[in-house]
């Protein structure tokens, strides 16, 4: 069984998708982490965002593994190295939407995601899971929240990771990414027609997960 969880940045979809997967005993696949890992590799190789040719070459040879840990956390392994924390840095966040809008990059990532999803029951979160990666997913959710709520949540999360950022940095970043993610030509962020829409602005994480479980069962 495939459960697709899409939505904009900061709506809480990764958190709820991870908990949902653990409760169901499914594999959790954070597709945003895959685009972030590739972005880290591009930065480490000093490849600028506009150099699509070299980014495509990198994408064609990259190895990204997602490990579901017993405690419910996820480890992201790039070419054999654990980059779970590195991919959350602000420099990655600034650059990732530009990498994710490249057609060939998306083709490679979508192929990897389909391979992962075919092996086991899983919950995938991203922007195009219900529309492109698994249009036949048995359950699809679109997780959203009011912009101010998303900014506050992302700010708290990044502060929790010890990052030195301001609320206005987060606000600018989210609105910039929303714009790139939803206006790009290839697989823009869009709610699948058959996706269940959940506005999480006034809901706790547990309430959102319970709602999703209710729809699944
Ligand atoms: O969910 P996230 O913030 O970690 O995602 C990072 C970026 O990757 C986000 O700006 C959009 C992009 N992304 C995408 O284009 N398609 C996906 N399936 C997942 C993420």
* Name of the top-level CATH class: Alpha Beta
The low-pLDDT segments are none
Sheet-strand content, in percent, reads 15-25%
Q: Which homologous superfamily in CATH is the superfamily?
A: P-loop containing nucleotide triphosphate hydrolases
- Looking at how many chains there are and whether they match, the oligomeric state comes to single chain
Quote the average pLDDT: 94
> What ligands are attached or bound here?
2'-deoxycytidine-5'-monophosphate
Report the span from N to C terminus: 12 Å
Tally of helical runs = 9
| CATH topology value | Rossmann fold
Outline the structure in words.
The structure is a single chain. By secondary structure, this protein is of the alpha/beta class. It has one domain: Rossmann fold (3-Layer(aba) Sandwich), CATH 3.40.50. The chain is built from nine helices and eight strands. It has helices spanning about 15-25, 30-45, 50-60, 90-100, 105-120, 130-135, 145-160, 165-185, 205-215, and strands at about 1-5, 25-30, 65-70, 75-80, 80, 120-125, 140-145, 195-200. The strands form two sheets. The chain has a five-stranded parallel sheet, with helices on both faces. It has a three-stranded antiparallel sheet with strand order 3-4-5, with helices on one face. Strand 3 (about 65-70) and strand 4 (about 75-80) form a beta hairpin. Helix 2 (about 30-45) packs across helix 4, helix 3 runs parallel beside helix 5 (about 105-120) and helix 4 runs parallel beside helix 8 (about 165-185). The model has no long low-confidence stretch (mean pLDDT about 95). The protein binds 2'-deoxycytidine-5'-monophosphate.
């Amino acid at each position: 069984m495939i459960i697709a969880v899409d939505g904009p940045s900061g709506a809480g979809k990764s958190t709820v998708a991870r908990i949902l997967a653990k409760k169901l005993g499914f594999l959790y696949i954070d597709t945003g982490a895959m685009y972030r890992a590739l972005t880290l590799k591009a930065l480490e190789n000093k490849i600028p965002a506009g150099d699509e040719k070299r980014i495509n070459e990198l994408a064609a040879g990259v190895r990204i593994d997602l490990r579901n840990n017993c405690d419910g956390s996820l480890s992201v392994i790039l070419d054999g190295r654990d980059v779970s924390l590195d991919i959350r840095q602000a420099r990655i966040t600034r650059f990732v939407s530009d990498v994710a809008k490249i057609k060939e990059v998306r083709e490679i990532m979508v192929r990897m995601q389909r391979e992962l999803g075919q092996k086991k029951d899983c919950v995938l979160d991203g922007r195009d899971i219900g529309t492109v990666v698994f249009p036949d997913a048995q359950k699809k959710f679109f997780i959203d929240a009011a912009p101010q709520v998303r900014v506050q949540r992302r700010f708290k999360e990044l502060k929790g990771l010890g990052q030195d950022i301001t609320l206005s940095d987060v606000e600018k970043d989210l609105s910039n990414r929303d714009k790139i993610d939803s206006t790009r030509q290839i697989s823009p962020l869009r709610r699948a027609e058959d996706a269940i829409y959940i506005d999480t602005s006034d809901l706790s994480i547990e309430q959102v997960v319970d709602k999703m479980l209710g729809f699944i069962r």
